[in-house]
Amino acid sequence: MIQKVKGTFDVYGDKGKKILYIKDVFKALTEKYNYEYVETPIFESSELFHRGVGESTDIVTKETYDFKDRGDRNITLRPEGTAGVVRSFVENKMYANGALPYKTWYFGPMFRYERPQSGRFRQFNQFGVEVFGSDDPMMDAEVISVAVNIYKILGLKGIKVNINSLGDSSSRDAYRNALIEHFRPHIDGFCEDCKERFNKNPLRILDCKIDKDKEVLTNAPKTIDYLNEESKQHFDKVKEYLDAVGVEYVVNPSVVRGLDYYTHTVFEVEADIPSFGSQNVLCGGGRYNGLVENIGGPKVSGVGYALGFERLLNALEAENIELDYNNGIDVYVAPMSENEKTYALEITNDLRMSGFKTEIDYMGRKLPANFKQADRLNATYIIIIGEEELKNNILTIKNNKTKQEYKIETKELINFLDDNIEEE
Ligand code: HAM
């Protein structure tokens, strides 16, 4: 039998219901903040991610799915959403006509060739937001509050918000020099990747998975000690605005993020749930003031974040949170024989078009089996249509919860259900 590719998964049953439910929650939340929905292609020119995510990142050097298409173009399956949204922002000139800030949200599959384990897949889904055109620290705080409020709305308690600042480009340069001086005497003892990172981008040594426990790494200089006055002020304001919107956080200097585009604020929300497992970063993001220019656009700043959907599901499960998705149907229609089917189908269609979630028996079940099926589908009402009902234009309708039975005229059906079924 052909099986799914390693690191991928199928969505079916309750997981499908949860995805749609959470997507609705995310849509409703981002609407409140006035974000606009965007979609960008799942594959893009490889160059976009080299320039966008960064040549020295693990994502680009080790994890992308790259291929040549039949026209000999270098194509990459997107490993993350930001670079594509930035490309779309620039290509569609969304910065024109005073339309800034441009605030967007997205949902979709991302692809990374990582070692699969619980909470880590090769195809996974991200929700994200990207906002363009405002340098105001209020925007950094807004994005972090979107990230935190989605967990709040879903009822997740065990979260810890870590924030940090990398500063502007001059602060980053000062920090980079400090890191080089710090690592130089020890670099011979590091892994081959880190030796390369030392020359290209020493910041990436900080997220090395092999050398992570080395003392020289744990006592490396901290970004916040190298912030210039302007960067410090920006970070102080972010903290002030986070307090204003009621987001609790800790300043954690070890958060540097694994992508190259960040400036100023970076943040991660981790699951603070006992026995959650090692893949506990639920979401991450930050400000990226040079990225739009880097991808060929004007000097416009950006800030955003993305949430791992599967890790969110794991966290909800770990806290035994039941989502309130509609798990039943309004009406189950049971024709007693072949003769009543056309009439039953007409009624079913009317119900569906009037907004009632309705199912009909397609299996030719006998009455007791139909009652069982209505239970299985968690139906609120069952309509039984036999010879007599058809002849007299009446319906037998039974409340499947109270077991009370009514005889009503067919033309009264919609009114009856309007009066008796609560709006979702
Ligand atoms: P990231 O930290 O690489 O950031 O990914 C964001 C989230 O996606 C992670 O916190 C994690 O929950 C989830 N995730 C990442 N890799 C996997 C995987 N292999 N399997 C399952 N879940 C995964 C970004 O992607 C940035 N684009 C975020 C951003 C947006 N920054 C600014 N704007």
How much β-strand is present in the residues? Answer: 15-25%
With strands numbered from the N-terminus, the spatial order across the biggest sheet is 1-5-6-11-10-9-7-8
Q: Could you list the spans in which at least 5 consecutive residues all have pLDDT below 50?
A: none
**Major sheet, described briefly?**
8 strands, mixed
Distance between the termini: 42 Å
**What structural class do the secondary elements suggest?**
alpha+beta
Question: What oligomeric state best describes the polypeptide chains here?
Answer: single chain
Number of strands: 16
Average pLDDT, to the nearest integer? 95
Number of helices in the DSSP assignment: 15
Give the % helix.
Answer: 25-40%
* Gross geometry: elongated
Tell me about this structure:
With 424 residues, the chain is an alpha+beta fold. The protein has helices at 14-32, 46-52, 58-63, 82-91, 137-154, 169-183, 192-200, 215-218, 229-244, 291-294, 309-318, 341-353, 367-376, 387-392, 413-420; strands spanning 36-37, 43-45, 65-68, 74-77, 102-111, 123-132, 159-165, 250-251, 263-271, 281-287, 302-308, 329-335, 358-360, 379-385, 394-399, 405-409. An eight-stranded mixed sheet has the order 1-5-6-11-10-9-7-8, with helices on both faces. A five-stranded mixed sheet has the order 13-12-14-15-16, with helices on both faces. The protein is elongated and about 95 Å long. The model has no long low-confidence stretch (mean pLDDT 95). It binds histidyl-adenosine monophosphate. The site of histidyl-adenosine monophosphate has 26 residues, from strand 6, strand 10, strand 11 and helix 11. Histidyl-adenosine monophosphate (HAM) binds next to strand 6, strand 10, strand 11 and helix 11.
